Amino acid sequence: MKDIESAVARHYGGTDLLARIFAGLDAVGADRNRLRTDDLAAVDEFHIGGREATTHAVAKMALAAGQHVLDIGCGLGGAARYMAAQFGCKVTGIDLTPEFIAVANTLTELTGLQDKAAFEVASAIAMPFEDQAFDAAITLHVAMNIPQRAALYAETARVMKPGAILAIFDVMKKSDEDLVYPVPWAGSAGTSHLTTPEEMRTLLGEAGFEVGEVEDRTDFAVEFFKQRLAAAADGPPPLGIHLIMGADAPAKLKNVLRNIEAGRIAPVQMISVRKEN
């Protein structure tokens, strides 16, 4: 498993990411001394639909000030900062990629949210937290890289309080047809581990969750990718997720759209509740 986690961290990790983000912020006229969460939304929401998808998922979580929320696979911390700023809750984010965590903590300080959001390098299948530590949890486009799904959701259930809401937004398998690579989460099939919505229901139920709302967001995703690709026709914007994905970002985005339109995959949102023990 360590080999897989190392491969995933290498896939996402790079060099000088923070410098590239700063250059993008400068190019769009953002004030780094008075940085807002909205200034970062174009680059720190690394999942289909970006900030719009985050707000859609978070709206289902019934968050309140004072709650402690876990963001599993937090990336650069965009969703965590959004929740902290909008709801006044405390958010802890974990991710395998050290550079992501370093950038997340820096951006959080620049937005003045360091007292509400914190980030650390950790594995989602062996979290460094006490039992029943969190009032809610969210994971956005993370499980596609994790083959040990049963361990992931068992560990997630362990650290959540009974009655806590888990919001999941992931790319899920819709057919047995091979994907076209590269895609944003994997350069090849070796680090892509998709499950079907039906398999997800079983995994979550066995881990101790009651699955509630399930939403296939295919139409939303297709429109999102078409808009992104059209906007980048004359070159990428100064600030965007291409800064994370690298030089082959256009190919990755086109391949995701191609796989979705072919019915191989779909972005699916699931809202579950941690059952009483």
Would you write up a description of this structure?
The structure is a single chain. By secondary structure, the chain is α/β, with parallel strands linked by helices. It has one domain (2-274): Rossmann fold. It has eleven helices and seven strands. The chain has helices spanning 2-12, 17-27, 37-44, 50-58, 78-87, 98-110, 149-159, 197-207, 218-231, 242-245, 249-261, and strands at 68-72, 90-95, 117-121, 134-140, 160-173, 209-216, 265-274. A seven-stranded mixed beta sheet has the order 3-2-1-4-5-7-6, with helices on both faces. Helix 5 links the parallel strand 1 and strand 2. The two termini are 29 Å apart.
Summarize the structure.
By secondary structure, the protein is an alpha/beta fold. The chain has helices at 2-12, 17-27, 37-44, 50-58, 78-87, 98-110, 149-159, 197-207, 218-231, 242-245, 249-261; strands at 68-72, 90-95, 117-121, 134-140, 160-173, 209-216, 265-274.
Total helical segments: 11
Number of domains: 1
Give average pLDDT, whole number.
Answer: 93
Distance between the termini: 29 Å
Unreliable stretches (pLDDT < 50, length at least 5) are 4-11
Rg value: 18 Å
Multimer state? single chain
Strand fraction equals 15-25%
CATH C-level name: Alpha Beta
